[in-house]
Amino acid sequence: MSGARAATNARVGRQRTTERIVASAGHAWSADPYADALHTGRGPLFLRRADGWLLPLDVERWCAEADAADLEVLRRCEGTVLDVGCGPGRLVAALGAQGRRALGIDVSEAAVEHTVRRGGQALLRSVFDPLPGTGGWGTALLLDGNIGIGGDPGALLERLARLLAPGGLTIVETVPYPDVDERALVHVTDAHGTPGAPFPWARLGTPALLRCARGAGWRAQEQWSTGGRSFVALRGPGATGARARPGRTTAGGAHRAG
Ligand SMILES: C[S@@+](CC[C@H](N)C(=O)[O-])C[C@H]1O[C@@H](n2cnc3c(N)ncnc32)[C@H](O)[C@@H]1O
């Protein structure tokens, strides 16, 4: 086989693997435990690793109104906002109420239905599917652990760089423990242990996110913590610098990222 053909086959193989992974994740998040929790507005709901370790999912907070920490994130958004993995849509609804243009995307039908019922705009799509406004979004949101989507944060950031306008902003919520840098196969499960299909997921503390983002051409603009949650604003590749906000130190603990 020629080198060129081998490289093409490898690329196609990788793409098919990604498509399979994303399809299995879509299936898992569309399955009953997640949809049921969104309908009742209550957990318990978990991501479960193969070794039995459980990560509680904050369904009650996701189904409530945007809280003070969310509003601090929304205040930093620029231009049109794409909420990746919008869940039941509290952020899209809050942005809409502020007269901002926002779209939620999610692979869960229940999540999209809830977002639309709250008055937000949402599409049943994976972030890796063709999306409207590609190359023009002002801000992408990856909150509530959504940097984990697809299990490969580098690939997700690369995808967002293509969805955003050059120099656009991505705001990522990180795990509030600095040492976390984890990739694992997980499934969504409820209190009865109802198993869904396993899918790859990632969890990153701020240092791991910054390492990954720098490697993909992103610049850390600001980091802050509030209400026990931690966030990083990343400026996308192609920034002119003109849109960069100055670094700040506030009572909420915001500072310029290194
Ligand atoms: C950890 S939950 C976060 C929920 C959410 N941010 C909220 O406000 O309720 C992850 C969300 O991402 C969605 N998701 C998973 N894979 C996705 C993908 N490839 N593209 C878009 N959304 C995805 C799930 O359906 C789920 O709603």
Would you give an account of this structure?
- The structure is a single chain.
- The protein has helices at residues 3-30, 32-40, 59-63, 68-76, 90-97, 109-117, 153-163, 206-215; strands at residues 45-49, 54-56, 81-84, 102-106, 122-124, 137-142, 164-174, 181-190, 199-204, 219-226, 229-235, 255-256.
- By secondary structure, the chain is α/β, with parallel strands linked by helices.
- The protein has a single domain (3-257), classed as Rossmann fold (3-Layer(aba) Sandwich).
- α2 (32-40) runs parallel beside α6 (109-117).
- The termini are far apart.
- Mean pLDDT is 86; it is low at 1-15 and 241-258.
- Bound molecules: S-adenosylmethionine (SAM).
- Residues 22, 25, 29, 62, 84-88, 90-91, 105-108, 111, 126-128, 143-146, 149-150 line the site of S-adenosylmethionine.
Helix and strand arrangement:
Layout: H1 3-30, H2 32-40, E1 45-49, E2 54-56, H3 59-63, H4 68-76, E3 81-84, H5 90-97, E4 102-106, H6 109-117, E5 122-124, E6 137-142, H7 153-163, E7 164-174, E8 181-190, E9 199-204, H8 206-215, E10 219-226, E11 229-235, E12 255-256
Parallel strand pairs: 3-4, 3-6, 4-5, 6-7
Antiparallel strand pairs: 1-2, 1-8, 7-11, 8-9, 10-11, 10-12
Helix pairs in contact: 2-6
Bound molecules: S-adenosylmethionine (SAM).
S-adenosylmethionine binds at residues 22, 25, 29, 62, 84-88, 90-91, 105-108, 111, 126-128, 143-146, 149-150.
InterPro entries: SAM-dependent_MTases_sf (IPR029063)
GO molecular function: methyltransferase activity
GO biological process, one term: methylation
